[in-house]
Every structure is written in structure tokens, then in C-alpha cells.
Amino acid sequence: MKNKYDLEKLKNLDIVDVLLALGASEPSRENAKAIHCPNITAHANGDAHPSMKVDKNANICKCHVCNLSGDPVEVAKKWHNDDFKKGCEWLHDRFGIAYLDGTTAEANPNPKPQQRKQTEYWSFDSKREYKKVVINDFLPKFALMNDKQKLKVLYTFVYRFSLSTSQTFKENWYRSRGLESQFIKCIGFLSLKDIEKMVILLKKHFAVEDLQRFKLLNILGEWNYGYDVTVIPSFDLYSDMCEGLMLRYTDGRRTGKEVNISCQEIVFPLPFGLGRKALLKSKEIWINEGHVDSITLAAHYFKQEEAFAGFTGVWAWRREMFGLFRGKTVVVALDKDKAGQEAQPKVIEELIKAGVPYRIAEWNAKDGKDPNELLKAGKLNTIVS
Predict the structure, then answer these.
(1) pLDDT tens readout for residues 342-376
(2) DSSP labels, 66-109
(3) Which of 73, 113, 190, 377 is the most exposed place for a label (fewest CB within 10 A)?
(4) pTM for the structure as a whole
(5) Is 140 helix (H, G, I), strand (E, B) or coil?
(6) What CATH code is carried by the domain that includes residue 84?
């Protein structure tokens, strides 16, 4: 059967008009290339900070949080749960474009897109087998793997290499923050020389195209990040493999403190510390910002390693993730700064929706905006929860 959709006209619709019809907000005057994504159910904060980038010349968009991207036809298809037929019909109906078979569609200013699915919360199966993986066993099979498997192999390769390097600089840096080596043994380190050696090994075992696609190398085939970095893992719940990495700069040469390596459209990495041990052993889990505060609390406050979840940013979570906290009590210990306090009500709202009991950790912000600052000021014991 011949396609009846006028794909040329549909694809030439203004991408911004299509996004606005789906419920996106108008682009700001300050940044005309950024727009609030209409797919707010996939954004933990309702996309308060615009995630959708628009390329007017190419007439495409890309959301850096959810999977809504492409030209007008692709966006409409994805919005309608990857149903090409419904997406095209919605565009014809919404914008009054005639079909190729001669039938006409009257413009409907408010055709309802298919309803988005309710939140499907993630859960943890304590009876599922836990596997320890030998990366070398997977190297011959790498080309046949799916993207999720490839991602885990590549990130685990980098992480385990970072554990094999000299850790002296790392240990000294954490010691300057009041943190001793026993609580940082799961964190790796990469100097400039380490990275040069690691890149040679990566290119030996993997295609450059894959290393670029999974954000380890840039377009020139070079390491995409700086050096003298600690390497903080985000572990899979059912194996000792990594689903994401965070690099923390320790040398003072970078303006930013840290960078995340992940492909969230393939796997959304869990916060540092929110792993199998925490979900198996802890009745109470503290939510905080960053791995330094997590280790601070673990080492000096509650003397254990399985009771924290260190977000890589106040909005670095998905609402589905809160299902993992069911059966626990969550203590919210976000920073006492503007960003942390603006995010706190939304985190609490999501905990309530997921049916998770919570408490709020309180302390005097004058003593420190976060737990590590409290530790260095000798005030960590003033936290009340």
C-alpha cells in the first residue's frame, strides 16, 4: 500500500511549532536555541532548566535528558510511543496538511497526543544472581553485543584501569578533605601518563567509533576529558560492572569540579553508593550531593559504607529511580545553598509519590553548606535528622 502521508511537508514543519504544539514552552530571548522539553514526565524537575536544544537551520531538536529528538516526523513518532502512523496523522491533523491520497485534514488546534505512560518505578530483585565479570572474557564478543552491554564493558574497562594506577595523589587529595583511604578504596585515579597508556589500550581492544559514540574519545580520537582526576563509579545492581563514571578534577587547573561520563539514553547511571549492598543491608539511606559528602557521612557520621546515595547534581535523578528506595527511610541531606534548597521540595515530592518515608537532615548553614564543609569546621556532629 502506498504511503499516504506527505512526509516532505511534515518534515518541513517548523520544529519549534511542533514542540510548542506538544506543550513545550517558548524559547527564551536569552537563549533562543534552548527550549523546555514538552516530555516533562521524563524530567525529574519538570525540565526547569531547558534540556531541549533546537537547530533551526537543520530543523531538528535534541533533548539531552530524554529520547525526544529528531525532525518533526521523528519527534511526533517518538511522542506517540514510536508509532509512525499515529505521529504522522497527528501532524496532518494538527497543522491541517492534506494527505497524498487527496483527502484533506482540517487544522485542529487541540488534537490530543497519546497519553504518556504512568511512572514505572524501578525495583530491586534481591534474589537475582550477582555476577563478577572478567572483562577479557568479553573482548572477543564485543562487536556482537548490544549497546547496553558495550557501554558496561567500556566504562568498566576504564574504571578498572584507574584502580591499577598509583593512588598516592588520590589518597593525599582526599586526606586534605578529611577522608581516609579505607573509605575511598573503590575510587580510581588517572594522571596524564595513565591516560596516555589507557587510550593506547582502549584503541587496541575497541573501535575508535565505539569509543567516540560512548563519549570516551572526542572527534579527533583523543581522551575527551582532563587528567589528574579521580574516577568514581556508578555500579550495575546485578554485577560488578559500571554503568556510568564521574571524574573529579583534583589539580585546580579546571574551572569545573567534575564531569559525568554516561549515555543516559542507553542506561541512566545510579547515584554513587546506591548499589546492591545499600539496598540489601540498609533500612535508612541518605541522599546528598556528590561523592565527597557521601564518603564524609559514611566515614564520620554513621560509620558504614552502605547507607548513602550521592547525586552528581541536584537534578541528576529520574523519578523512576525513587522506586528503589521503597522499604527504606530516606534522609534528605542536600546542600544548604540556593540550588540544593530549590531542589529539596521536588525530591520530597517524588519520594511521597513513590511511597517512600523520609526525614530532612538539618544543620546551620553558617557552619558549612554541605557535610564535608561541616567536617572541616568540626561541626559534623551538629546534623539533626
Answers:
(1) 889 989 989 998 999 999 999 999 999 999 999 99
(2) SS-EESHHHHHHHHTTT-HHHHHHHHHHHHTPPPTTS------S
(3) 377
(4) 0.71
(5) helix
(6) 3.90.580.10
